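Worked example

This section walks through a single chain of length 261. The input is the sequence exactly as stored; nothing has been trimmed or padded.
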Amino acid sequence: MYTKQDLLNDLNDLNIDKTGTLLVHSSMKSIGEVEGGADTVLDALSQYMDGGLLVLPTHTWSYINADNPRFYVDKSPSCVGILTELFRKRPGVVRSLHPTHSVAALGADAKEFVAGDEKFDTPCARGSCWGKLLDRKATIMLIGVDLTRNTFMHGVEEWADIPGRITDSHEQLYTVLPDETEISVPSRRHSGYWSDYFCKVEEIFEKNKVMYKGTFGDAAVRICKTEEMTNLLFEMLKVKPDLFSDNTPIDTELYNMFVEH
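Given that input, the structure is written out below as tokens.
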């Protein structure tokens, strides 16, 4: 059974910047038995990042839609795991106002970080929290999940203006604040499950040192560097805009173009 100190030791071994910005995608089950359960995991992450900014996704895309259009900032549960749901309720944590792709953040400038997401009509706009991760050269930690759960990569495709990734039409959604104020947020959505194909670049990510692997408890962990990952993906998408349109393996010519031998 893992203790908080065990998990802190793992974070140290992963060489994550304690004073930077860390986004965590997670599978609690993958970590194994932890003394104190999910709260201990969040305690360890929060303590380690006490001098920086800790961010977890609190998405609601699976059930907020035209038929159920109201996202309640303080009540609507996250659909991306128990750690995210517990984290958003913790003291000091603030949640962004995007109706389908909100995040929750803890840190000195958390309020500034989450501000303004409701002004954008796409899931991962460049001016949203997802773009701010790039501005801050954030680190992304994937605990027990692979690149298919890396929402930031949806953002890169959006910023690169890859055709067909976002719906042309809007759904009328609303963000509801704790005081019941309603904010109209007409929203476009991801038009397919393109993230199913993100794993095809894993080896290229590792070869280019934009991602490395480690462990956190029992979980296999992938650590991604947002700036380097974005630069590499932009170059790859220039050559092959439909890179993530299907699960066709990367051909030898494209592989050799981006991997030095």
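What to look for: The CA atoms of residues 74 and 170 lie 24 Å apart.
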